[in-house]
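Regression test attached.
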Amino acid sequence: MCHGDDAARAANARAVRGGPLAGVPMLLKDNICTTEFPTTCGSKILAGYRPPYDATAVTRLREAGAVLIGKGNMDEFAMGSSTEYSAYGPTRNPYDLGRVPGGSSGGPAAAVAYGLCPIALGSDTGGSVRQPAAFCGVFGLKPTYGRISRYGLVAFGSSLDQIGIFARHAGDVALAYSVLAGPDAYDATTRLGDAPDVSGWERGVEGLRFGWPENLWKEGVERDVIDGLSSAAEWLERAGAKRVPFDFLPGEYAVATYYLVATAEASSNLARFDGVRYGFRHEDSDDLRALYTRTRSAGFGAEVQRRILLGTYALSAGYYDAYYLTAQRARSRIRHEYHEAFARCDFMLLPASPTLPFKLGEKTEDPLAMYLSDIFTIGANLAGIPGLSVPVGLTASGLPRSVQLLGPEDSEPVLLSAGRAIEMKGDQTKFDHRHESEFAWPTKR
Amino acid sequence: MAYEAVIGLECHIQLNTRSKMFCDCPAAFGAEANTNVCPVCLGLPGALPRANRAAIDSALRLGLALGSTLQPESVFARKNYFYPDMPKNYQITQYDRPLCEGGALPVGAGERQRKFELIRVHVEEDTGKSFHPERFGDHPVSRVDFNRAGVPLLELVTQPVFREPAECAAFLVGLRRLVRWLGISEGDMEKGHLRCDANVSIRPAGDTKFGTKTELKNLNSIRGVEKGLAAEIARQKRAVAAGEKIEQATLLYDADHDKLAVMRSKEHAHDYRYFPEPDLPVLRVSAAWIAAARVALPELPWETERRLETEYALSGEVASIIGADREHVRLLEDLARAGVSPRTAANWVANVVIGHANRLGIDLARFRERVPLGPFATLLKRVESAQVTATAAKGMLEDVLDKGADPAGFVSGGEAVSGDDVLLPLVRAVIAENAGPVEQYRNGKTATLGFLVGQVMKKSGGQAVPQTVKEILMRELGQPAER
């Protein structure tokens, strides 16, 4: 869902010359507000909606000289793992057009994989950057919660959402992170103090310990995914890192916890889409109640309605304690378990997704199977820690393989160094990207 | 059986901060519709709230004045319900962890003081304002003005401590005085700066159990609170007397027709699905912040009233009139500092100044612009030293307020007259002109003497000293006849 040359030219005219991203074309997931493009969140209910303001992340990109070329498709309101739940049609995986690019940030991931732009922004509430990055064979960073301002990111699950970065190289992720990360007076949940310095992304992994929670992929994980993990682990060891095997079990209740917190927050965040002030309005409404119900029934897709109902239920009188409050307690425990794991290692290696990219239509009829495919990514959102998807080459059938690195809060420098170490060994892509090094860090790649 | 009412109040205080609760938009009233708005207070997709420190400061001032426990950590929450004047379809408020808990509002001073206990005071945002029904061509339309959306409010919830509507009115008068005194709100109920909902139930007098309560909304004046509650209490008593059960409900009071209408019955009660606002961190109020607020806190109105009684020996009545407004106290004390005796100053403020200000519809700041402190103090000192009579001084004050006379005239002129040389001709003229009353006086109706004194005063332009006039009159008229 890229917009045309006029918009790009207009944006170009505003780009700052000489900034760290001077002239770099960039794509934004369609839930990040910009003044020059519509922001639809992949939903009919925001058809044609054009925000009157720029997201803080967008302002920072502009100040750094980036050129915004358009918006990327997504699952409606970021609710999905395949970019099939978009009111504007599905996005396909550039490696196999019969397969999904992952989701919900499938559009930006596919665009970067195919070479439409070197860097793109997505959002990650439960893996929506890391999983499509894995499916499309590109780097995908979900930063520490509060490191990149959410101001102007249309909220799904406010306590989980983070803007994330797609790029084909670890260094490009680091570059964009250095521009975007840092406190913002417009987002009270941003962390105070400077963001960690990621300029040492080529530092290597000598002496670092990486956790190897092998129990996580004992069952339900595809062979190719496990092979990718093994390759990445060997490469890290050869680069001087030390493997620390241990059992790690937060997955047991993470999915339930995640779907309670995310849907509860979403049910409230999405209440504002009611046809009164902006976006789609069902015109055949005689009274207020009809306006609300008809607008929302016709404007939201089935998956969004399903999650609003789930979240509304979880917050209802009489159920709040059993669901929302219990989920909050479980969340504290999950955070604690990650904290303990990182006492034993500097970062952890695990799958980004239990499967390789699946076929279009394969899971749309089974929401629960779709939810379970988030099992390796939602922990980072619940714990507020950063995660990075790193490509580890292609399978025999030519599909991308990836691993996920998780670290404690503010461990972005470590994750990017480790990602870079894996990148140095892997055979990354089948696409020929000729403009690669024109906009990179001043150091050579 | 005798029944008593049990009433609890929920008051909303609109703060007078410069900007709104969660954005930089002006909180001011009166701008063109939908001009004081931004992505945050319009609830546009992606916009996020950020708490206004000045509003928290106001909440701390009120909490300290009421003796509430100020929580070092409190939590914003979302109250979810759909309404077109609420841009996000949830209101950011506080729920299970409010900023201020407990406390009480003292009403009256000294022996007559009552303390009304509170449950809590918390911070929240106001909604926009709906206007309906209006017409656009053939269609009825509603319009919404979002200028008020996001204006900071404090919600204050009392314990169910009231038994009579009059107590509620006294409480509201006290609350209005306090918020104005602290400078945190204009406190005008008619303008919606102060709003009040009431929960009311009845029970057999002396019972400790509560009856089923109803909630009364739309009480938009202190008089309306009293009348609405009286109507609802009467309705509940009638229902119980007729053997009916009271149903839990939310009622609207129509003050113009003194009527109650059911707005929502129990089955339609909202489930607000409160949960902690994830866009705002826990509100942390440091000990240093609280200490600074405490230092900045003025003497509280009930403390001032007490001090006026003890330090200046004012009557309870005068002290409560003066203590109703911080500006009254300020004028009294400024006059006292300028050398007027506090009692004279108090009597003038309570009996003269407030009356003129009310009559002219001006506040004391405007009064003081028109009647500067220096000349006013001089005038009152001249009254005290009997250079000017009180009557003459009042006339001079009126001339300044109503006829644009120069207050500089307070310093000289209007001298009291007490010499026979001036007064005797006036007295004789009055006796000559008032044969009837003079006759009555001589026949023993001594009360007419007051009338005759008044006539002489009039002739002297108020400058005659009344006591002297009376003495000369009595001398001239001779003793009245015995009856």
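Expected vs. actual: identical. The longest strand of chain B covers residues 3-14.
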